[in-house]
Amino acid sequence: MRKVHTLRSIQTLLRSVVLLGTLGGAAASAADLVPEARKGAQGPQVEAAFRHLQAHGYFPNAELARKYPGFRPAVAREPARPDLFDGAMEAALKRFQEAQGLPVTGALDAATRGLMQRSRCDSPDLYGFNARTAGLASFVTVSSWPQTNLTFAFLNGTPDLSANDSRGAVIGALQRWQAAAPVAFTEVGGGPVDLYVSWQYGDHGDGNPFAASTLAHAYYPNCSSPYSCSALAGDVHFNDGFGWTVNGTNYDLRSTALHELGHSLGLGHSPDAGAVMYAYYNGKIDLQPDDLNGIRSLYGVFRDTRTFDAGFYLALNGDLSAAFGSNVGAASRHWIDTGRSEGRAASPAFQVQEYLARHGDLQAAFGTNYPAALAHWTQNGITEGRQGSPAFSAPYYLSLHADLRNAYGNNYRAALEHWVNAGLNEGRRGSPEFDPQYYLQANPDVAAAYGATNYRGGLIHWLIAGRSEGRRGAP
């Protein structure tokens, strides 16, 4: 395997210390009793704020620079003394308040101190802090995976939960991201693994020991320019010094996993205090518009006509056409949120259940993980010439049509693009099983219903009714 992990344990005492020291509500109440500090102040509360800011990317930090390629602190120089509130401290506080969606006062006020006391993710703020045009409530991106079919594995579990509960919470978070963008996750027991998931204590061997208030941390994607590759890329480490739950109370594992897996996919910390990708723990939460916009900016949306065609999707799924009519936007949202995971047919060139049924090796590898099978087809299956629909086979299409063979050679992707964008509408036969011109000519009732040259309509009829009625799709 490409990654080596060292699991370390410490005394149970650490667990008690962490739990007592980081409960956000109690800490915030205590902070309210401390007077507001501004430029010129000095003392322990100023130093504590400096240490917090330095740990999370606002001042020079050699450890962060080592662990995060391209890291640059928000403020280039430290205060003259850690306990002195000078101009550098004021500048860093303003950047912190901006990045966390707080009023930008430049003062160490109650709201700022209270937030600093809350449990949070260990990844630095402002890393990949992208320029914004839509206000502060905007996602932050760092990097992305070059592939979208990702593997994951569990290294261990947590004593707080049963194996089924802990695995279920993390897998549920993976599936939520999978439903939001064209990425897919497959659990593996060995071989190359993209994302390892584990529970750790304190200094656990990755060069990034947990601080007392750190719930978890994760590593950004591998080999995404300009960032260097890392053996830990994508990995998620949960701090087992905290008590993990699956019932929505502190600390909710699925919600924390959603946040950390956002980092694994390339999202940074968002200044939107309601977003999953906000740096500080927000309790039980689901993906918000800011999170969805962020992940789709990295991996796109389901606009690939090879795999999704809204009109075709509605025509092949009667329950959806009854619910949505001809609302293309509603059909697209259903495909993103539900249909893809249900294995619904969504395009003339690819129907995932057909794809798995035709290829036993893929059926064995993916089972009913339909998003993973879809990702395989777009990344590998097309170029391998694998048939993803009864209506289209790229090798057959090129062998049948000499003009296309002369134009594309054995370029199966180009052949597929031609059939999707032109060939089907021209009535070109794309597979041994279906000839659109033959089907309409052999079935006058279908031609009358759809039109004598509506080859797309003929294909839809054959898929939803003709095959089950015993009608031949080709001579």
TrEMBL record:
Organism: Corallococcus llansteffanensis
Domain of life, source organism: Bacteria
Cross-referenced InterPro entries: M10A_MMP, MetalloPept_cat_dom_sf, Pept_M10_metallopeptidase, Pept_M10A, Peptidase_Metallo, Peptidoglycan-bd-like, PGBD-like_sf
Record keywords, A-Z: Hydrolase, Metal-binding, Metalloprotease, Protease, Signal, Zinc
SUPFAM superfamilies: Metalloproteases ('zincins'), catalytic domain, PGBD-like
A GO MF term: zinc ion binding
Signal peptide interval: 1-30
A GO BP entry: proteolysis
Domain Peptidase metallopeptidase, chain residue ranges per copy: 141-301
Residues spanning the membrane: none
Name recorded for this polypeptide: Peptidase M10
One CC-aspect GO term: extracellular matrix
